[in-house]
Amino acid sequence: MNEFPYPPNRLPVLGDVLSLNPGKPVQSMTELADKLGPVYELRFGPMRMVIVNSAELADDVQSEALWEKEFGPPIRRLRKVVRTGLIAAETEDPQWGAAHRVLMPGFSREAMRGYHETMVQVVAELIRRWEHGGGPVDVAGEMSSMALEVIARAGFGHSFTRLDEPPAGNGLPVVKLMVDVLRYASRPVSVKLVDATIGRIALLRHRRNVSELQRIADNLIGDCPPVPAGSPNLLQRMRDTPDPDTGQRLSRTVVRDQVLTFLIAGHETSANTLTFALHALGDRPDIVERVRAEIDAVAGGDPATLTYDQVAKLQFLRRVVDEILRLWPVAGGYFRRPKQDTYLGEHRIGRGAWVYVNLLAVHRDKRAWGPDADRFEPDRFAPGATPRRTAGAYKPFGIGLRSCIGRQFAIHEVMLTLAHVLYAFDLEPDPKYRLSVDEFVTLKPAGLRMRMRPRNQLR
Ligand code: HEM
Fold it and tell me: Where is heme annotated to bind (predicted)?
């Protein structure tokens, strides 16, 4: 058996706190991989985790027979906020099973078709705001409001804001609450050591934020009308549809946890993906032109007429989205644990050990993706274009039973938004901007501002 490599400056008791930038854990894990190789171990106090950075080793943890979802520190902390929420509950928890069964039909093709018009309306509002705005746009902030509106309106029949009105000065209060809660949840382990002392104030503020978010969710549940004749939204399903297996409805607390889970998991991820995409496309007018040509071909030159089924026909745009999620897998990675003693590459690994698959590194592994793995090149997703890609090499939505339930929702939302934005505007990046990526559970471009120049002004 081989011991896993570990950072040279490991401290007694504290472990590897000097090796990880607590504000950018995934990015510093990726840098460590350059020094320590594709797999290594990190320790923080009593906590140990093995970090996987190559596609080949990521393949090893795919088996659902040998491996299962582990939650890791950020989601374990999030669990204190969304207790029974889908993302945080153990697979064996009957409440996870019930919520999963009740919600799965909410992401079927039929249900997705029902969300399409709402998504179009939200994006159209954003386009109107930008057309009348003129100045540079805070891309991450705007995408965050847009994605929150999409999940709130499509999922819960609720609106937090209108996007064709000027943005609120300090952003939406609900977004600020969620960002603060996520920021607290993603604090590094080293900070945990001060929780009992100066961290107490932060803890009290966090608890107040959580209560406020719960109050917002309770209001949403109370305000949502009964199931209409057509297809129910996500909230109506959770609140009013019995579990097909047990015939029982989800409790009010479980519904509240799911509402918060969807608000959190279903908005930052899509928003950050869109922000990374607009950043990358700002430097690639050639790709933007190809997307526009495809919209011309599929929708006859007017993205507003795109139907649900036509969006799926935008195959090149889909490659753009796949490629941005390869380069910037906004979830950062996922945790796995072996169900029994097994092997990870040539290393023996014990049952229950924590393994973090660092997608930022795996998705740029040159052995799987080729020497230009760091380059934004959507055509690598053309059929047969990346022959060495294996099962674990691309997993932006996680693995198996516990992979992302909102995957189709997110892909449709991101494609639709890009189709509308790229068709309406030329992207003008700030030449002085250099990409800097923040991490609060998800990866997010920091401080990106771009001017959106209406295309019809140029003609
Ligand atoms: C789970 C990624 C959008 C809801 C996950 C997981 C990943 C992920 C990697 C697995 C986490 C783990 O194994 O610990 C993404 C990405 C998105 C996105 C990259 C956007 C580009 C969404 C949206 C929704 C959503 C739009 C809701 C509408 C969820 C939920 C889970 C989940 C509820 C937990 C599923 C379960 O364990 O039962 N997502 N997600 N996600 N996602 Fe997403």
Answer: 404
DSSP secondary structure code for residue 11 in this structure: B
Under a CB-based contact definition with an 8 Å cutoff, are residues 356 and 76 in contact?
no
Distance CA 412, CA 119 (A): 9
Q: Give the list of residues 6+ apart from residue 79 with CB closer than 8 angstroms, or none.
A: 71, 85, 88, 89
Which residue, 408, 410, 118, is CA-closest to 270? 410
Tell me the pLDDT tens digit for each residue of 211-238: 999 999 999 999 988 876 678 999 999 9
Helix-strand-coil percent breakdown of the chain, rounded to 5? 55, 10, 35
User: What's the pLDDT tens digit per position in 413-442?
Assistant: 999 999 999 999 999 999 999 999 998 788
Question: Which atom of ligand 1 is nearest the CA belonging to 89?
Answer: 37
Work out which ligand 1 atom sits closest to the CA atom of 96. Answer: 38
Its pTM stands at: 0.95
3-state secondary structure of 38: coil
Q: Which residues does 342 contact at the CB level (< 8 Å), separation at least 6?
A: 66, 67, 348, 349
pLDDT on residue 2: 65
pLDDT at 191: 57
| Domain 1-83+332-395 part of CATH 3.30.43.20 | yes
Q: Where are the domains of the chain?
A: 1-83+332-395, 87-279+403-454
Ligand 1 proximity of 410 Cβ (cutoff 6 Å): yes
